[in-house]
Amino acid sequence: MNYRHAFHAGNHADVLKHVVLLAHLDALLRKDGPFFVLDTHAGRGRYLLQGEAAGRAVAAINPVDALLAYPGSPLLAAQAMREQDRLAACELQPEEAAELKALFAHDRRVAVHARDGYDAVRALLPPRVDGVRYARGLVLVDPPYEAQEAEYPKVVAAVREVLQRWPQAGVAIWYPVKQRRSLQPFFRKLAGLPARSVLLAELLVRPDDSPLRLNGSGMALINPPWKLDEAIAPALPFLQRHLGEAGASTRLEWLRRDEG
Ligand code: SAM
């Protein structure tokens, strides 16, 4: 495991992922009932920017008038959550997990697990914390795709497991786009899952003509909350304008949508 998210934190893929994550959390916050978030590949929670500005999304954790750190997915989730909500954050790399544990040492709403996030789907779902069952929530699956093709079957199997164990949950999967056509088998698998709906939100910052670099990324949203597509829609052209190069594009598309 050589991947360290610090080399990628705050890039266009992180920004897309976190904008969609925040929109999903917003939808969960609309109801009073508690929700549970499982972050299967959580990272260290906070990344130093070394002077590189990353926009307003990071201003909240930067009390002085300078952008020093970029928040990762578990920190964004914890910042959005209320007293009644809970987060389980899994991270396999020991140093990253230790940093994440330190970050949340004083937040009793957050449990950090130094373990495999895919195994955690079986171990932690359906969520039950201190005797409370959580009907609503979100599973974020954000693996490093280090082993490339080998990651996709693991992701699909994990989503299948979530749907069986916790059918009320939404699942958000981040995926890289190098050449989009190579993702077709993955999309076919997602469309074939026993889910009510599957939505894709993508930002390509340049044409997807090279298999060697990250030209963009997407979030596959399984059983997204009502009107999440409408919440995300205006953000995509904004991100394209601010982060894209010549030939950039966005996509918001239902892979599957069962009406009624
Ligand atoms: N979700 C984070 C965020 O948005 O801030 C970024 C996560 S980063 C893309 C992927 C993380 O997964 C890395 O920190 C890596 O060490 C960790 N990782 C790799 N394989 C894992 C596994 N099987 N279970 C849990 N974590 C894993």
UniProtKB/TrEMBL annotation:
Keywords: Methyltransferase, RNA-binding, rRNA processing, S-adenosyl-L-methionine, Transferase
Stated name of the protein: Ribosomal RNA large subunit methyltransferase J
EC id: 2.1.1.266
HAMAP family, per database record: 23SrRNA_methyltr_J
Catalytic EC class: transferase
Lineage: Bacteria, Pseudomonadati, Pseudomonadota, Gammaproteobacteria, Lysobacterales
Record-marked site positions (Interaction with substrate rRNA): 3
Primary role: Specifically methylates the adenine in position 2030 of 23S rRNA.
Molecular functions per Gene Ontology: 23S rRNA (adenine(2030)-N(6))-methyltransferase activity; RNA binding
